[in-house]
Structures are given as structure tokens and as C-alpha cells.
Design a protein that fits this description.
CATH class of the largest domain in chain A: Alpha Beta
Oligomer: heterodimer
Shape of chain B: flat
Structural class of chain A: alpha/beta
Distance between the termini of chain B: 50 Å
Strand content of chain A: 15-25%
Number of domains of chain A: 2
Shape of chain A: globular
Structural class of chain B: mainly alpha
Distance between the termini of chain A: 47 Å
CATH superfamily of the largest domain in chain A: P-loop containing nucleotide triphosphate hydrolases
Number of strands of chain A: 10
Number of domains of chain B: 2
Radius of gyration of chain A: 21 Å
Helix content of chain B: 55-70%
Order of helices and strands of chain A: EEEHEEHEHHHHEHEHEEHHHH
Strand content of chain B: under 5%
């Protein structure tokens, strides 16, 4: 499913002294198969944007019967047109899974099994049989890398932080969404936990969910994993580029208060010393470029 | 703070905003007492006029107040209707079996409606124009005499201010958790009342757990900064009575006086 957004604007608390414009005229498209990154400063509208993708924030036009004249907003996810009132938002949410920041806060059930089963039950057309349910839950818990037999009857609150996050992710992917959106999936984890979560996302990307969208502050994470990256600043999209081209524009990123991945920083330092490397800013790519360069000289 | 719930502080500069919170709290108490003691429309009329003037001086858009009234609209209509059809009276306009509409009933319901609306309006005026911190400071100062009988006034007001402080935080958390469960297909806004309440269980449990964690963190943070180590706490902002407060106080005194006068001389011709 392809995501097409044009001219998307969102204002919180319109017509009051608390009014804040979170998005103003955002346009971008996310292709099927993308591992899409969204970066930007705090308050640049990233989270607001992704909440539009599964209809958690509804467009005003989808709440009223009549469309306002001159409203040229387009928001399409696959065949779902989110500007219209008739859209089946639950069917949409089944296709677009959303993992919030600190998703472990959404855990509520007595056992891990029940918590993961929650979304599967909600999204099933008719009541699933015990066997179907168990199969789906087992698969989801296994794919996030937890031992099913030993955790299924545990309380989610007895698990460690990293494990809780995995359970929370399992609780979203159990419905097998085609698009998986994650808001800062690795926030607050130690470096090892971060790596594990990113590896998990790659596993999911190649097997379960065709498209993965992550919101991130961690440039290394973005450089290493994403196929394309959108840069948000003050509610607008500055550019959408593959990391290879994006991090070449280091000055522009720094000017918007954004960081650079380690590889780009090293490339810049080398450049100051007169050594120019042509790399894609992943660690592997950097090492390859450096080795090739070493052989040349 | 993304969503603003009703009754929250409305940040503009005005005469009413700058008043000492104690004066405003006193005003509210007197005002509510007068509303409940009053038996004549004239008394309520005076109250309404005073409130209207105070509201105009607060520079808060009137629509904000309308919204506050809308919150209790159902309650008002419900009680008014019940009183209208059940109130006993002599001048009967319409009756059917045990139901009747009388002149007295109409007057009584109208009185009730005005009373309830004034009640909501004056309390919203207080919360719109006073920050939660100023409000609890004011309450603490008013309750100070109770410390003579060793009542823990400070602890009480601290609990109050923490509760007030956490309302926006909790409502934000509730919003996030609701969205997270909605994203997992929870049917929060569909179906009948029973299924809606059931659908809220996943939200409530998650919210309860996160608020416990919040409370624990706050307790740790306070202890880490030696909260409760010194006997007497000093204040960052001291409350001071200015000319505005004296002026407002005189208005309150006038209000009480006129209410008492009306009670003592019900036939007092104006």
C-alpha cells in the first residue's frame, strides 16, 4: 500500500490562545517496501504526522458531511481515502499498525498472551477459534524474539523493560498490518536493546510488514536502516531523500538543529584533512569506502 | 499540553487575574452562600449583575463560559423538568394525572436554573482566572488558623496542588493510551453504554499503572531534594494585599450587605 499525502495541515486547539500549528502544508509519499525514516527536532510535527496515517487524528473534512471549498488536502493510504467520512477507519487500522513512543505503557492484561491477543480479537471479523488465536499469538511472540512457552502466562509487568517493549510490539503486529509505523521505537533502551529492536524491525520488514515507517532522533539508526528519510522542521517537510544523499548536506541539517550520524561526522573530519570519501553512511559502507580509498593511495 | 479541558486557567492579563487568590476564594464562598440563601429573584439578579461585571473585567471570552454551562446543561434541564411537573402549587395551568404545571412550579424551576448556572459560572470564573498554584496558596493561607489545632494544612494543600498539577498530565496520558488501544482496534466510541464501559477497561488499567509509576517517581524526586526536612517552609511567591484586593473586598461586603438587607426586609422597596 502506498501512502500519499498532499497539503496536510493540522492545528491543535484551533481558535483559542492555546492554538498551535503542528503541521502546515505537508506533502510526501511513502512507497510500498520503503523503510521510511522521519527525523526532525522536538515539536516539528513528526508524531502528529504519523498519527494521521491510521486515522487517530482525523482530518476535519472526514468528520463533517460536506467538504469545505478550496480544501485541497490529499491523504491516501492504499485504497483508503482519509479525507472522506465514509472511510472504514477500523479496517484502515488493521492495515496500518502503530507502535507509540514507550509502547510498554499500553500493556494492561494479566498475561502476555492476553495482551498480545487483544488486537487480534479486535480486528477479527468473527470470533477467532482458540486454535487460530493461539497460533497468531505464538507467531507474534516468537517473531519478536521471546520464548513463547515461558512468557505466555507471565504478567507483562514482571518482564524487563526491553522485553515489555517486545511484548507491546507483538501486540500490534499480531494483526499482521501491511504498514508498521513506530514512534521512536528504540527510545530509552540501552545500546544493545536498541540494536535488537532495529534487527527486529528488519526481520519484520522482510517478512511481515511490507512498509516500515519510523520516527527517530537517532541519526545513526536512520543512516543504518532507512531507505528514504523525510526531514521535518516547524511543521513542514524540508526534503525527502535516501540517507546517502541526505547526510551529504550536513550543513543544512546542522542549521536545523539536527545531528549527524557518526559516519557523516568522520567523513566531514576527513574532508577537513583533504580526504573525500564517497560512502552511503552505513557503517559497512563507510568501512568499504575507507578500505577502497586506502588501496588507491 | 495538547488538549485543554474546561475549567482550566485561561492566560490573559486582567483586573480579575491580578487579584489576590484569597480574595477570589472568599468571593466565591460568599457568592455561593448568597445564591443559596437568596429567596428572591432580585437577590439573584444582583448576584448575576455582580458576576457579569466581574466577568467583563476578566477579559475572558464569553463563549468560554457558555461552554462551561454546556457541561451541566443536561443536569440543569433534568432538574428543571422534574421540578416543573412535580412542584405543588395553587395556580394550576395544566395537569394530567399526577403531573401538573403550576405558576409556583415555573417560578421555582426558573429560580433553580438561574441558581445552578450562576454556581457554575462563578466557579469557572475562579478557575479561569487563577493558576492552580495561586489557588492552593490561597487556600493554604485561608486555612492557616487550623494549624493551631495541629491540622496538617500544608500537607493537605500540597496534595491538592499535586492533584491539580497532574490533571493535564493524566489527561494527556489518557489520550495517548486511548490512541494506542484504538490503534489496536479497541472500540472506544462505538456501541451501547455497557460495551463502551467495557472497552475502557484496557485504557483505565494502563492509565492506573502509569499514574502509580508517576506518583512513585514524584515521591522519589521530592525526597531526593529533601522535601520535609526543614520545619518551616518558605514561599517563593508571597501573597500581598493591594488596592485592587481592597476594592474587590468592598464589593463582596456590599454583596453580603444587600443580601442580608433583602432577607431582613423582604418587602424593602428599591
Amino acid at each position: 500500500m502506498r501512502i500519499v499525502v498532499e497539503n496536510l495541515t493540522h492545528v491543535y486547539n484551533p481558535k483559542s490562545p492555546f492554538a498551535t500549528t503542528a503541521l502546515s502544508g505537508v506533502s510526501l509519499s511513502i512507497e510500498e517496501g520503503d523503510f521510511f525514516g522521519i527525523i526532525g527536532h522536538t515539536g516539528s510535527g513528526k508524531s502528529t504526522f504519523v498519527q494521521h496515517l491510521n486515522g487517530l487524528i482525523r482530518l476535519p473534512s472526514s468528520l463533517k458531511r460536506k467538504k469545505k471549498k478550496g480544501d485541497n488536502t490529499i491523504l491516501k493510504v492504499g485504497e483508503f481515502d482519509l479525507t472522506r467520512k465514509k472511510t472504514d477507519f477500523r479496517a484502515l487500522r488493521r492495515k496500518v499498525g502503530m507502535v507509540f513512543q514507550y509502547p510498554e505503557n499500553q500493556l494492561f492484561a494479566e498475561t502476555v498472551f492476553e495482551d498480545v491477543a487483544f488486537a487480534y480479537r479486535n480486528f477479527s471479523e468473527k470470533k477467532p477459534t482458540d486454535q487460530e488465536l493461539e497460533e497468531a499469538v505464538r507467531e507474534a511472540i516468537t517473531v519478536v524474539g521471546l520464548p513463547y512457552e515461558s512468557v505466555k502466562n507471565a504478567s507483562p509487568f514482571d518482564l524487563s523493560g526491553g522485553q515489555r517493549r517486545r511484548v507491546a510490539i507483538a501486540g500490534v503486529i499480531v494483526a499482521k498490518p501491511e504498514i508498521l509505523v513506530l514512534d521512536e521505537p528504540a527510545a530509552g533502551l540501552d545500546p544493545h536493546g536498541k540494536k535488537e529492536i532495529m534487527d527486529l524491525l528488519h526481520t519484520l520488514h522482510s517478512s511481515w510488514c511490507k512498509t516500515v515507517v519510523i520516527v527517530s532522533h537517532d541519526m545513526d539508526e536512520v543512516a543504518e536502516n532507512c531507505t528514504r528519510v523525510a526531514v521535518f522542521a516547524e511543521g513542514k517537510v524540508l526534503c525527502v531523500l535516501p540517507p546517502k544523499e541526505l547526510f551529504r548536506r550536513s550543513e543544512e541539517l546542522l542549521r536545523h538543529g539536527l545531528d549527524l550520524p557518526l559516519t557523516a561526522k568522520v567523513c566531514n573530519l576527513l574532508k577537513e584533512q583533504g580526504v573525500e570519501l564517497d560512502c552511503d553512511y552505513t557503517l559497512d559502507g563507510f568501512v568499504k569506502a575507507a578500505l577502497a580509498r586506502g588501496k588507491d593511495t | 499540553m495538547k488538549d485543554v479541558s474546561f475549567g482550566q486557567y485561561y492566560p490573559v492579563k486582567s483586573f480579575v487575574h491580578s487579584l489576590d487568590p484569597r480574595v477570589k476564594i472568599l468571593f466565591l464562598i460568599v457568592f455561593i452562600t448568597v445564591i443559596f440563601v437568596a429567596k428572591e429573584f432580585l437577590a439573584l439578579g444582583i448576584c448575576a449583575a455582580v458576576l457579569l461585571i466581574a466577568t467583563l473585567f476578566s477579559r475572558i471570552p464569553l463563549t468560554k463560559f457558555l461552554r462551561a454551562v454546556r457541561g451541566i446543561l443536561f443536569l440543569v434541564l433534568f432538574t428543571a423538568t422534574l421540578n416543573l411537573i412535580f412542584y405543588p402549587g395553587e395556580t394550576v395551568y395544566w395537569s394530567w394525572k399526577f403531573l401538573q404545571i403550576t405558576k409556583e412550579g415555573i417560578l421555582f424551576s426558573a429560580f433553580l436554573v438561574i441558581r445552578l448556572v450562576l454556581l457554575v459560572l462563578c466557579s469557572s470564573l475562579l478557575t479561569y482566572t487563577t493558576t492552580p498554584v495561586a489557588l492552593t496558596d490561597g487556600i493554604e493561607s485561608i486555612l492557616t488558623p487550623l494549624t493551631w489545632i495541629r491540622f496538617p494544612v500544608h500537607a493537605l494543600t500540597l496534595v491538592m496542588s499535586i492533584a491539580l498539577r497532574f490533571i493535564p498530565k493524566l489527561s494527556e496520558d489518557a489520550g495517548t493510551i486511548m490512541n494506542a488501544q484504538r490503534a489496536r482496534g479497541a472500540k472506544l466510541d462505538e456501541g451501547g453504554p455497557v460495551s463502551r464501559i467495557k472497552a475502557f477497561v484496557p485504557v483505565l488499567i494502563a492509565l492506573l499503572i502509569s499514574s502509580f509509576r508517576l506518583a512513585e517517581e514524584l515521591g522519589d524526586a521530592m525526597e531526593a531534594r529533601c522535601y520535609g526536612c526543614s520545619k518551616k517552609r518558605t514561599k517563593y511567591k508571597k501573597l500581598k494585599i493591594g488596592w485592587r484586593d481592597i476594592l474587590a473586598f468592598l464589593v463582596i461586603a456590599g454583596l453580603i450587605a444587600s443580601a442580608v438587607l433583602l432577607r431582613v426586609f423582604p418587602q424593602f422597596p428599591f
